[in-house]
């Protein structure tokens, strides 16, 4: 991957998006998790759901350990939901100097890191289908004057953009996706959104032909580096 020159990196800011798949899951990854995360992983019924969570949680700790010069077991990750108190919220870490976001769907797992500025990332695996399959949730996802998506891929692209913005805000689905209106064609533009998303930008990520993904942050659109993360997950 080509690395942007230092002056460009400093001006726009850089977000590193680490890409992994569920095939990278190893049994020793569970030892890196907190007791609450281990319990959550055990509650998953389907193997792929458990592996998605395991890879995302382990990769986040491994990456943060590198950045903070700590043992992965010493990295404190807080997932406490401010509404119900359960550990399923956007991960927060012990320093405000690094912000993170985790997403997974199908075989894909993304962990995004950025210095200083909050971020949100989302991914959806694509499957053959039409927009009609999602009509039952159009009302919740679309803003009142937003056109309906033309097919399933367009709907999922819209969904990932909005979900990335909701993760950025820290509110998740406590904020209705329909409160955000985005441009339809070309690079996504935030046309209207709740006050906490003032100044937010959203960028599409090209990670695979069988998935759509998006990243949201504040300020000018950042430079984005997408890197494969299997070497971190393979080391024991």
Describe the structure.
This protein has about 240 residues and is an alpha+beta fold. It is built from six helices and eleven strands. The strands form four sheets. The chain has a four-stranded mixed β-sheet with strand order 4-5-1-11. The chain is globular, with a radius of gyration of 17 Å. Mean pLDDT is about 85; it is low at about 1-10.
What are the salient characteristics of this protein?
single chain; 6 helices; globular
Order of helices and strands: HEHHEEEEEHHEEEEEH
Low-confidence stretches: 1-10
Tell me what portion of residues adopts beta-strand conformation. 25-35%
- Which overall shape is indicated by the principal axes computed on the Cα atoms? globular
Q: How confident is the prediction overall: mean pLDDT?
A: 87
Q: Could you describe the largest sheet, including whether it forms a barrel?
A: 4 strands, mixed
User: Distance between the terminal alpha carbons, to the nearest Å?
Assistant: 26 Å
Give the helix proportion (percent range).
25-40%
Determine Rg (CA atoms, Å).
17 Å
Tell me the total number of β-strands: 11
Side by side, the strands of the main sheet go: 4-5-1-11
Structure classification: alpha+beta
Number of helices: 6
List the SSEs and their pairings:
Layout: H1 6-12, E1 14-21, H2 35-43, H3 47-68, E2 77-80, E3 87-93, E4 98-105, E5 108-115, E6 119-125, H4 135-141, H5 152-169, E7 181-182, E8 190-192, E9 200-205, E10 211-218, E11 223-228, H6 230-234
Parallel strand pairs: 1-11
Antiparallel strand pairs: 1-5, 2-3, 4-5, 6-10, 7-8, 9-10
């Amino acid at each position: 991957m080509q690395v942007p020159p230092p002056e460009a990196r400093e001006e726009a800011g850089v977000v590193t998006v680490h890409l992994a798949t569920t095939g990278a899951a190893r049994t020793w990854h569970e030892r890196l998790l907190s007791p609450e995360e281990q319990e959550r992983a055990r509650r998953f019924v389907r193997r792929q759901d458990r592996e998605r969570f395991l890879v995302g949680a382990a990769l986040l700790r491994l990456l943060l350990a590198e950045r903070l010069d700590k043992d992965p077991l010493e990295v404190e990750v807080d997932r406490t939901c401010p509404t119900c108190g359960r550990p399923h919220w956007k991960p927060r870490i012990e320093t405000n100097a690094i912000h993170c976001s985790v997403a997974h769907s199908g075989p894909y797992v993304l962990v995004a890191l950025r210095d200083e500025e909050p971020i949100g990332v989302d991914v959806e695996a694509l499957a053959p289908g039409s927009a009609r399959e999602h009509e039952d949730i159009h009302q919740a996802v679309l803003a009142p004057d937003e056109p309906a998506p033309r097919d399933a891929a367009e709907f999922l692209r819209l969904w990932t953009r909005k979900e990335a913005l909701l993760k950025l805000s820290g509110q998740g689905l406590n904020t209705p996706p329909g409160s955000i209106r985005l441009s339809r064609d070309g690079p996504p533009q935030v046309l209207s959104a709740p006050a906490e998303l003032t100044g937010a930008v959203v960028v599409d990520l090209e990670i695979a032909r069988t998935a759509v993904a998006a990243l949201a942050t504040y300020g000018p659109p950042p430079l984005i580096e997408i890197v494969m993360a299997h070497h971190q997950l393979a080391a024991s």
